TrEMBL record:
PANTHER family: HEAVY METAL-DEPENDENT TRANSCRIPTIONAL REGULATOR HI_0293-RELATED, REDOX-CYCLING DRUG-SENSING TRANSCRIPTIONAL ACTIVATOR SOXR. One of its GO terms (molecular function) is DNA binding. Signal peptide: none annotated. Residues 1-68 form the HTH merR-type domain. Gene3D superfamilies: 1.10.1660.10. It comes from Streptomyces capoamus. This is HTH merR-type domain-containing protein. The lineage of its organism: Bacteria, Bacillati, Actinomycetota, Actinomycetes, Kitasatosporales. Keywords: DNA-binding, Transcription, Transcription regulation. The keyword Transcription regulation applies.
């Protein structure tokens, strides 16, 4: 299937497909006339890529797990493991964001919010 048809069937642009090809997410062969030709299963794979991006997976993460997922794209076990890993990453990030929010909230209303927040005596860390 040529790149225009692939783009139409997957709702992506030809430039996006070219980029995915450049970074190794999809592979096509060149026809004698120079046109790209992609196998039909690329449609399913690109739908998977788009869904994974919607769920917060980066292209690097998708690429890193791509080979195992292409071999078993409907494997509930493999996908569940990846989703569980992503949930752990999100939980860590949420904790980091909560700590950042608390730090920012402490600084609101202080004279200069970019100075370290003054801590009451007895609440200093070991590095103070």
């Amino acid at each position: 299937m040529r790149i225009g048809e692939l783009a139409a069937q997957t709702g992506t642009t030809k430039d996006t497909i070219r980029f995915y090809e450049k970074i190794g997410l999809v592979a096509g062969r060149r026809l004698s006339n120079g046109y790209r030709d992609f196998p039909p299963e690329t449609v399913t794979w690109l739908h998977y890529v788009r869904t994974a991006q919607t769920l917060g997976f980066s292209l690097a993460e998708i690429s890193r797990h791509g080979e195992e997922l292409r071999d078993a794209p409907d494997s509930a076990e493999a996908l569940s493991a990846l989703l569980a890993e992503k949930i752990q990453v999100i939980d860590v990030r949420m904790a980091e964001l909560a700590a950042l929010r608390a730090d920012l909230a402490e600084r609101v209303g202080t004279g200069c919010p970019f100075r370290a927040a003054a801590r009451p005596a007895g609440k200093r860390g070991s590095g103070d």
